[in-house]
Amino acid sequence: MLLGAILLLSAIVQHVAASAGAGPYQSLLIWYAYRMDIEAFGIRDNRLAPGITGSAPDGSCYFDELMDGLQRKGQNLAPGQQTSVGTDLTPDVVETAKEIRGLKSLDSSGNQKPFIYSVDNKKLFPPGHFTTPNPLLADLLDGLNSRMNAARKELGDEALGDTLKNARTAAEGIHEQRVREMSENLIDTANDYLQNEKHSSTKVVTEELTDMEGGKYTRIDMAMTAVADKNFIQYWAGFSPWLQQFKGGKTDKGKARSHYNAMRGFQGLSGRLQRKCL
After folding, report:
1. Which of 28, 164, 263, 267 could form a disulfide with 178 if both were Cys (CB 3.0 to 4.6 A apart)?
2. Are 15 and 137 in contact (CB under 8 A)?
3. Which residues form the signal peptide (predicted)?
4. What are the backbone angles phi and psi of residue 170, rounded to the nearest 5°?
5. N- to C-terminal Cα distance for the chain?
6. What letter would DSSP give residue 273?
């Protein structure tokens, strides 16, 4: 496992912050988890999205039906808004994510505004699934992972084919977009931590990467920073616990905390999907 993955997967996710870039990929991850669940176990009372009936012959949903049906109240697609996915059960992840960003919903005055993915977790799982009124991102990811893992055990990875492959791509896309959106904030926060908490003159080394959509972004190069400072790994072990003290999303450190936790959560799910199901 890469050093960056080892260092980033050290704590439990607290909650998820909204992300315009990652949102479309999150809707696609949910779609592929839904399809895996349906393919393995069929339509039944305890399926994912049990309260949403679609127009497929078996009563399951097509992509736009599921995405819109899971939205929180007041966040639905505007009339006539849809992707080109139609009845395709394995739409291309990257191209569909781009389409979703161009969709519109309605504001309180009936005017169109950009569609923002905002899933109602209580619509996604059967009644009684969550034990708290406000489930955390960790609860959502555990639930999705459990369903996908059950489907993989039932059918096998080879039988799931593109459905599993695309679920992996969607999970990678979520993590990638969250890193892309919060990279500058995280870099600044990490340098602040090293300077003021650890009294180190070290500044993190960065690297430029290209995301699935061809966009450039910068992230911390953990391995090269560790080469530059032999104490960095020891310092970094305390970064996440230190960051958790900054509650809320109104400060730069609070925003860094929220996105960092979400980033690690989806990275963890992506890692589990990549591994062979035992």
Report:
1. 263
2. yes
3. 1-18
4. -65, -45
5. 18
6. H
